[in-house]
Amino acid sequence: GQPIGCPGLDAEGAYKIYEKKGRQATKYVGGDTGCDLNRNEFDGEVLYQIVEDYAVNNEKWYVDFPIVLKKMLTNGYSPEMMTDGPNVFDGVTCRRKKGIFQCTKA
Known about the structure:
The two termini are 35 Å apart. Strands 1-2 form a two-stranded antiparallel sheet. It has a two-stranded antiparallel ribbon with strand order 3-4. A two-stranded antiparallel ribbon has the order 5-6. The protein is extended and about 45 Å long. The chain is of the alpha+beta class. Helix 1 (47-56) packs across helix 2. Strand 3 and strand 4 form a beta hairpin. It contains two helices and six strands; from the N terminus they run ββββααββ.
C-alpha cells in the first residue's frame, strides 16, 4: 500500500515505480508531503514526539523493541492459545559502534 491523505502524497507524479529484485517497488519522490505533525496523544505524550525520541535514541529503541514486539505478537491471545515459534534471537549479539547498535548472528 501507499500512504494517502496529505497534499504531497496525493499529488500526481509523487511516486516512482521501479523494479527491485524482480518485483515492482514504489518510491516517494514528491518532496514535502504537506502533512502536519501527528499531535494526537498517547499516554499523555504527543505521537510525533514519541517517533522523534526513537529516531534520535537508538538505545531507547533497542531496549523497548523486544518488549513491544512480544506484546504485538501475542496481543489478543491468551498464553494457552499460543505456541512457541522459533527463537530467531538465539546467537544474536548486539554491540554499539559510534552510537549505533549493530547486531550479528553467530
